[in-house]
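The records we work with from here on pair a chain with its fold. A complete example follows; check for yourself that the lines match position by position.
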Amino acid sequence: MRISARNILKGTISAVKEGAVNAVVSIDTGDQVIKSDITIEAVKDLGLAVGKEACAVIKASNILVAAAEAPLANISARNQLAGTIAQVNKGAVNGHVVITLADGVRLTASITNEAIDSLGLAEGQKALAIIKATDVLVAVD
């Protein structure tokens, strides 16, 4: 299966915390843990359990970018991945910012040119990719 989401991070499920309707699934990629908030029904349908291989799938438009080196303390987003900006490509209105994480994984964020300019984003700069857990899909083979 091919999908349009640009960001796919492979890992192993390290935790599944079930609530009444939703569950938070933690996927350990080796250098970071990505959290996904999905329905209990999806957990059961996909057979998600600790130790199972899974992928965190994130659309580029669901990644926020912060010009910061370390995770932000006062923010509700559970996924804050530190890296270095590898590429900034501006379009007519929006641009793509590629952030390389410590393990070499590259994430692409789609943000406005205005945000790129106001944050002063440039290649070689430290940055955070910020993703809400509800914006992370889980995929399995």
Notes: Residues 7-58+133-139 form a domain with the OB fold (Dihydrolipoamide Acetyltransferase, E2P) fold (CATH 2.40.50.100). Helices lie at 40-46, 113-119. The chain has a mean pLDDT of 96.
